[in-house]
Amino acid sequence: MRALVVEDDFASRRMMQRLLAPYGEIDVVVDGEEAVDAFRIAWDEAHPYDVVFMDIMMPKVDGHEALRRIRAVEKEMGIRTVDEVKIVMTTVMEDPKNVIEAYQGGGATAYLVKPIDVEKLRKELDKLGYHPVK
Q: 3-class DSSP state for residue 6?
């Protein structure tokens, strides 16, 4: 699995990096603008991400906007819906408006509330078909 963690909080970035490390290669960026750039670069290098873990509340470009931009890039590149990158939104906000916007407005694959529960993260990764590398 190749994953991108998009998180503006240093402690949260480090924690996600540590939790995901057993699953494969992890890259980290600090805002939505960098996320879209990293997504494009990964495709340009023919080494795209399998999954993106994206915070919602970030400076410059928030997670909802970055999600919409990534989906637009995929359409522009002709990537079929079935082949889209999995995007898991991560946030401290668990209000229904944000959940609905993440799924319907941007095409999120999943939604995890922070602080991230390790067992819920593992179950989500399992549902997505990702397992620790032996």
A: strand
